[in-house]
């Protein structure tokens, strides 16, 4: 390493202390451990500074100071990335968790959120107006990170991915410049942000299209593992003909007796509740329900269904596949994985991509897959005292078993940092344009975000 590349931590600390005062945290501070702790306790990263920012101007100054002092940078918004890319060893954390302001414009039909807002923040603010934004399935996930790389969720069929509803983003670039990206301003950055993740800058504010959905028919129907093959076959037939208004998850969740249960989670967000009820009755007929909890719910309560799915302090590892269909071989592989699960905390989820999300042009955003499919999320979870090996082996074996039925690539928000080959495959024909955008907006690779893009210098 040359002398000019040596990080100047002392200088960075002085400059950031002048800027932020007590909102700069160093390892000796009482709050530092909490500020660098993630929900996935398997992540072991040791940043050296946490910069708790209050607005975009402070974010810009922190980015410039980190660059000037040659310190690596990471961005913590929701901090929900399972691989922990919100933290970097020896780095400065641009902490947006205090920036959670939400503004609702009912007349314009928009919701504008600061960079640290969660999906729950946005949905709660829209609820008095009967407005929702497209989100993922969990309230605590940061809305920026979810939106930038995709955003599968309960409204996917009716309104598309979260990124399909992004109207504008305010961004701090790697050199500290503050820019706006929308169709009329920096349109190439706007294109890249919708699917390319946090690789181009720090998104300090997003404006999202809002939708009037006062309530949805939603809930959970669960069956015993002995009925899993029939349930998944029924699910396959159902999603093949589901209308836009109906988006359905399925998979396996831990059961009270230690054996997984197969679940089907419908969300019908249409105007005709009778249509929704007919589909729910069809789901009930897949087998003999052990749990049958479906009701008309405010969208905020729809997202509460998975609140207990991730236990802070446990260890997690995720694997993912895109399935263009659900042939019997894939069904059997999923059921076998459930029977062989290595931990009572682990789960498998199938996310339903259809409807409005498939009618966006493949080149209109950076997101690379616009044909109907199921996103498989393999979630290995275990207690901190357990050895990681058996759980990693279970997740990897499940991924391998599904590979013959899968499309290339996978959902960039879930791919592991080392899976850069699959990241490139995920973007398909968009990959070269995306890499050019990375080189244009972040030529020095300041942002190592989700997804982890390979080295871009010299890329075509």
TrEMBL record:
One of its GO terms (molecular function) is FAD binding. InterPro entries: BBE, FAD-bd_PCMH, FAD-bd_PCMH-like_sf, FAD-bd_PCMH_sub1, FAD-bd_PCMH_sub2, FAD-linked_Oxidoreductase, Oxid_FAD_bind_N, Oxy_OxRdtase_FAD_BS. Residues 43-213 form the FAD-binding PCMH-type domain. It holds the Pfam family FAD_binding_4. Keywords: FAD, Flavoprotein, Oxidoreductase. The keyword DNA damage does not apply. Its cofactor is FAD. PANTHER family: BINDING OXIDOREDUCTASE, PUTATIVE (AFU_ORTHOLOGUE AFUA_1G17690)-RELATED, FAD-BINDING PCMH-TYPE DOMAIN-CONTAINING PROTEIN. Belongs to the oxygen-dependent FAD-linked oxidoreductase family. This is FAD/FMN-containing dehydrogenase. It comes from Micromonospora mirobrigensis.
């Amino acid at each position: 390493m040359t002398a000019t590349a040596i990080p100047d931590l002392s200088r960075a600390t002085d400059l950031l202390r002048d800027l932020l005062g007590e909102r700069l945290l160093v390892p000796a501070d009482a709050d530092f451990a909490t500020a660098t702790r993630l929900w996935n306790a398997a992540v072991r990263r040791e940043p050296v500074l946490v910069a708790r920012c209050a607005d975009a101007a402070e974010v810009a100054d922190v980015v410039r100071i980190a660059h000037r002092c040659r310190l690596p940078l990471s961005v913590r918004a929701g901090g929900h990335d399972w691989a922990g890319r919100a933290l970097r060893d020896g780095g400065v954390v641009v902490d947006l968790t205090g920036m959670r302001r939400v503004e609702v414009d009912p007349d314009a039909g928009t919701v504008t959120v600061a960079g640290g807002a969660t999906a729950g923040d946005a949905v709660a603010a829209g609820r008095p107006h009967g407005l929702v934004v497209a989100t993922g399935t969990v309230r605590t996930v940061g809305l920026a990170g979810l939106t930038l790389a995709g955003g599968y969720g309960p409204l996917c069929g009716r309104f598309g991915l979260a990124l399909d509803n992004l109207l504008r983003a305010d961004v701090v670039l790697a050199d500290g410049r503050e820019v706006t990206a929308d169709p009329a301003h920096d349109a190439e950055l706007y294109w890249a942000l919708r699917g390319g993740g946090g690789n181009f800058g720090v998104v300090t504010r997003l404006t999202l299209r809002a939708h009037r959905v006062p309530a949805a028919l939603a809930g959970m129907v669960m069956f015993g593992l002995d009925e899993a093959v029939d349930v998944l076959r029924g699910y396959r037939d159902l999603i093949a003909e589901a209308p836009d208004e109906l988006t359905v998850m399925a998979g396996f969740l831990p059961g009270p007796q230690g054996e997984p249960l197969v679940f089907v989670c419908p969300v019908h967000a249409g105007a005709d509740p009778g249509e929704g009820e007919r589909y729910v009755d069809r789901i009930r007929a897949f087998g003999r329900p052990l749990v049958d909890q479906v009701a008309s719910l405010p969208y905020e309560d729809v997202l509460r269904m998975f609140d207990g799915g991730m236990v802070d302090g446990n260890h997690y590892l995720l694997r993912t596949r895109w399935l263009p269909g659900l042939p019997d071989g894939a069904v059997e592989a999923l059921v076998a994985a459930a029977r062989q699960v290595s931990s009572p905390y682990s789960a498998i989820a199938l996310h339903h991509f259809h409807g409005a999300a498939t009618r966006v042009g493949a080149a209109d955003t950076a997101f690379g897959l616009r044909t109907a499919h199921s996103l498989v999320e393999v979630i290995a979870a275990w207690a901190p005292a357990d050895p990681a090996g058996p759980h990693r082996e279970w997740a990897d074996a499940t991924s391998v078993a599904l590979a013959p039925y899968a499309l290339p690539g996978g959902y960039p928000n879930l791919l592991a940092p080392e899976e850069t080959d699959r990241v490139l495959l995920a973007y398909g024909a968009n990959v070269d344009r995306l890499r050019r955008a990375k080189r244009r907006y972040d030529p020095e690779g300041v942002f190592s975000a989700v997804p982890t893009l390979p080295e871009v210098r010299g890329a075509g």
